[in-house]
Design brief:
This protein is α/β, with parallel strands linked by helices. The chain has helices at residues 13-25, 37-49, 90-96, 114-127, 155-163, 172-177, 192-201, and strands at residues 2-5, 29-34, 53-59, 62-68, 100-104, 135-140, 167-171, 188-190, 204-207. α1 packs parallel to α2.
Length: 208
Amino acid sequence: MKELDARGLVCPQPVLRTRAMLEENNPGDIKIIVDNVAAKENVQRFLEFQGFNTVISEQGGDYLVTGSHGGKTIERGAGDGAPEQEPAGVEEREAYKKKILVICATDRIGYGDDELGKKLMTSFLKTLKEMGDELWRLIFVNNGVKLTIDGAEALGDLKSFEAKGLKILVCGTCLAHFDLLEKKEVGETTNMLDIITAMQLADKVITM
């Protein structure tokens, strides 16, 4: 079993180091040691995306993420956030619908009146459905992660988006910074590698 000590590394280094180990050694079993919840979730999700079965355990305040695929040889993807295969048919998905990525880096829009700004952001999120199928990813970073927690006004709309298949990514480092990891109610905890990859794949990026 290959082991990697990723304690003390900031996002997205635990995932990047894990990916490098897989590419270099192609291990059947792997154990990653991290020291925070966000890194634990990111590494676990990355390994599962690569075909590993994972087990989480705690040891002296650290987290052990153990991955195994039973000795089978599997063809792994390019990394966390690799694009899904688009289904064929229907005029090749209508000549490939535009993929719009929306990044919310704040919980309000504009400056001058914070309460007005929060109302505008809530209205913006509720109205995103007008993009239809072209809305491809919704990412929350920095103060924007507060829109995904229990009690957020637009939380119901975000859950509805997710239930209909929209992938929502929420920055784990940001959640940890605001001590909100346990309060997140929607979306996947993500890291900067996921975000950069999504930006590369998107046809259009809108930042709020």
